[in-house]
Amino acid sequence: MGKATGIVFTILLAAVLFWLLSSRPAVAPTPEDAGKTPAQGTAPKKDFKVALVTKGEVNDGGWFQNAYNGLQRIGKDLGAEVKNSVRKDDKSAFEQFATYGAEGQDLVIGHASEWFDPKLVEQMSKFPQTQVFISGSEKPAEGNVCGIRFVLEDACYVLGFVAGSMSKSGVLGCVGPVKLSVIESTFHAFEAGARRARKDVVVRVVWTDSWDDVARAKEQTLALIAEKADFIFHNANNGAPGVFQAVHEHKDQGVLAFGANDDQAAMDPEVVLASAVLDIPAVFVKFAREVRDGTFDKQTKTAGMPEGTVRVAYNPAIEKRIPADVREKADRLAEEIAAGTVKADRLQAK
Description:
Blueprint: H1 3-22, E1 49-54, H2 63-78, E2 81-86, H3 90-103, E3 107-111, H4 118-124, E4 131-135, E5 145-150, H5 153-166, E6 171-176, H6 181-197, E7 202-207, H7 214-226, E8 231-234, H8 240-248, E9 256-261, E10 272-278, H9 280-293, E11 301-303, E12 310-314, H10 324-339
Parallel strand pairs: 1-2, 1-3, 3-4, 4-5, 5-11, 6-7, 6-8, 8-9, 9-10
Antiparallel strand pairs: 10-12
Helix pairs in contact: 2-9, 3-4, 5-6, 5-10, 7-8
């Protein structure tokens, strides 16, 4: 083959290869890829950063730990970069919110209803790219700050009904931490549920004035038991172990306890009859996904039994102590609350 012939052959071969490659059809997406969206697990268009601020340590087995678990779920399910801080006073909490805003966090969750405050609203208006959720608040949204009101009262009402139906003394007790309207409301619902079962029931409420004083919680619970309370419902956050310790010491007298915010049966399987449970992780993931995808409507949300995020969890180790007819009525009551045909009593937001 001559030199000129070789050059011509090379040119023709290159032309044929170019034609073959350029005329191939585009590769179609696989069935697995077709219709896939960021909300279904693919990488979001930008990094998604979420921070949580709590007022107590995240090892309480209830309100704060449940929120921390929700943060971890956001990280796992949405591929978000997450971080958390514990700030026990409002001043340092608001400073932490500002720090997170300056860092460019996409979502900051404040897990304390009292933090929905005009000062915070004004402060976070400087960081419009950051959406703020305040757990426990049902105040109307202001700017980029909105509430998520977990209606624990739905389950508290049912627990009250069980306690009112089973109490031998006719005296029930409630133990709270710092006196806040949202916690008072859970005790109000518990009492209303008890009165549904027994009109003459007496419900005594005590406060520890602390988010994490276990010794004080135990002391206050013992005082209730001394006043003949045979069922104790707490919403005492990190003080919960003290409540259960006091009840355990009187379990032979038939005293029983109820857990709050998460299933707390494991904290003392011998005395925790049932718990009012919030599915905080599911709620956090739902609304965090909307923030990530740009579909969140910036309005305060409500999450209770009708939304499937509040329930009563019975302790399988001792639930048979509940009379069959009482359990049947309690289950029916929970179903009616979930269906919206019965409204659990709760206090109006202050």
